[in-house]
Design goal:
With 236 residues, this protein is of the alpha/beta class. The chain has one domain: Alpha/Beta hydrolase fold, catalytic domain (Rossmann fold, 3-Layer(aba) Sandwich). The chain is 39% helix and 16% strand. It comes from Micromonospora profundi.
Length: 236
Amino acid sequence: MAAVLEYDRYPGPGPLAVLLHGWACAGEDLRPLALELAGRYDVLVPGLPGHPRTGATLGRAYGVEAMARCVLDLVAAVDRGPALLVGHSLGGAIALAAARLEPELVTRVVTVETSWAWVAAPGGLVDPAEVERRITSVNNKREALGLATVAGQLDPAAMAESLSSVLAWSRDPDRGSPLHRLGVFGDPGWAGVQAAGTQGTAAEGVRVVQLPGCGHWPHVERPAEVAQLVAAAETA
């Protein structure tokens, strides 16, 4: 059995749900949503490679597909049947990649603020100074929401590699999945969707919901509402 991601569990009576955090973030970000979903699902919140909890212990598994395989290994190891995958930002890309790689291990995919118009911004995303600037920006925004800092807990090489991989993923015309049922956006992601059209959701037939007034972390700002949308997507 492959090495498995470190994770927090919010046990519940229903099927398995795996929540995937975003780039330069942490599983803690998803705790409000996990608590809302635990009444309906058995919820796992792993730390992605290069991020808090799992760190660099799984080696250089920092690309979108490599991290998707780590998530699938976790689903297989838990052995609770196929999982609902809910991914925030980078986590959404990972969830979609996992659904493409092994659809039999996935029931549905819900993405939250997974829109990649911002990835193509000039400035050299793999330049160390630019990566550090983006890490600082994300960390400051997380702290403004009351989330604990992740400064010093991120692997810089992992951050650069995952950004580079997401850029390649965003250009892949086959990056979507028929299991993708819902894309939830706050104001930042919604602006990207409007600018890029369906590029932000990556599949036809995906229900797109905007939560006006939310930033990049709708699952922190309005977790009960996001949980209701997730549950509805699972039965759609």
